[in-house]
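User: Continuing from earlier, I have the next pair ready.

Assistant: Great, send them over.

User: Here they are, in order.

Assistant: Folding the first of the pair now:
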Amino acid sequence: MIDQKICSGTDRQQYWKKCPKEELDELMELVHRLTKPQGGKLATARIRDFMWMSAPEFYRSKTKENPQFYLEKIRKITQVMHLSEEDSVKLASYRLKDITYDWVVSWKNNKGENVASVTWQMFQDAFLDKFFPLELREAKIEEFINLRQGSMTIKEYCLKFNQFAKYSPDLISNARSSMSKFVTGIFGLVLKECRIAMLYRDMDLSRLMIHDQ
């Protein structure tokens, strides 16, 4: 993977030669920011760790790419690394490729130098507006509302439920509402067992899914 080549030494020079200037400037700026308070070796180590934690790339042109999941995976990594929101945005920007990287460069330039530090929420909102328009998000919400087990196994239904639930946090804002939404899609003996299990005081969605399987 190109990520590991950056840190391997053997192919490092070849990588830098092929790296687009804007992309290289972005990474060097982040190294410079981290170097000031922490020292060069630690800054390099943190960037290496980010690369080795399988930070995803986003092209937009590839099949099965999901803008929402891309953001979630990047944010999980930067939170584990205890990076600031501004540095999280820089690393997320670095993993954008082709037209998506062109977009983020343009977006940052349009904001101007006098704008305060870019927060993760600002970046997330702009990114989703561009690559995951409202109409597509509403379509995902509609799919979640209409989700039923059908011919799926309980395990498959649980996986599908969790995937679509990310788009509809308002529908599952607490344990009771999330369990109620979950049981509307199942049937037969499993439905009966679920309704009984929901009566337990310490029951939540995660426990309910495990109970069903």
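And the other member of the pair:
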Amino acid sequence: MLAKVEVKDSCSAWVLIGDLQVFLRIRGNRDPVSSSRSQLCDTMRLFLSIICIFSASITAGTGLQCQDCQNYASTDCTGSLAVCSGSATSCMAAVTVITSDNLSSSSIVKSCASYPQLCGVFYSITMGPIHLASKTECCATDGCNSGTPQLPPRDLTPNGVQCPFCIAEASSCTSTGNIDCTGSETRCITYSGGIYNGTQFEQKAFKGCTTENVCNVPAPPYPATLLQQGYQLSCTPGATH
């Protein structure tokens, strides 16, 4: 909230506080040399100064502050506090872990939560031997996103759904077989587009199993996620057996 003061004469002024415009005038003896009127004018000027200081304090104090950092090589990062825009009402921390056989790659992003639909979301995708899991947590106090979200243990119980599988560094890929889906991954996914690797976007195409929320809540593009603007994602029920 900003205050703007426009002095009309020695003892009156327009005060603009946000969208509220107020005219203040000291009424009394019109004699400009009147000591009582002079004191009142001094009081008004002091009052206006207090309004300006108070308004500046409101401006500095109302913005939520969140830890802001990224690390595309581990699940740990620490950054300075950043003031969120007026539309952000919470802070977020998102962890993503990709595993393939005995290898793994992790990343974490902490920032203001510009997309509240991602708050509290856990999802996973399986593309044959490659498994991706991600979890986002949100909170609503200054600097509250300093921790690291913990991924739940992977559920390898077959759920009876089969999906076509393929993966390629290209704009599309063709499946040569199906994989058995496990746990809560009950939908088949097809993806094409760029994925951020920490330094640049890499073109990827894949098919596999995924959790249903990936299909129901469209993910925003980078930097809110690792997905490049313009990506294509679709889901199908998959075959059951």
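Worth noting for the second one:
Confidence is low (pLDDT under 50) at residues 1-62. Helices lie at 35-61, 212-216.
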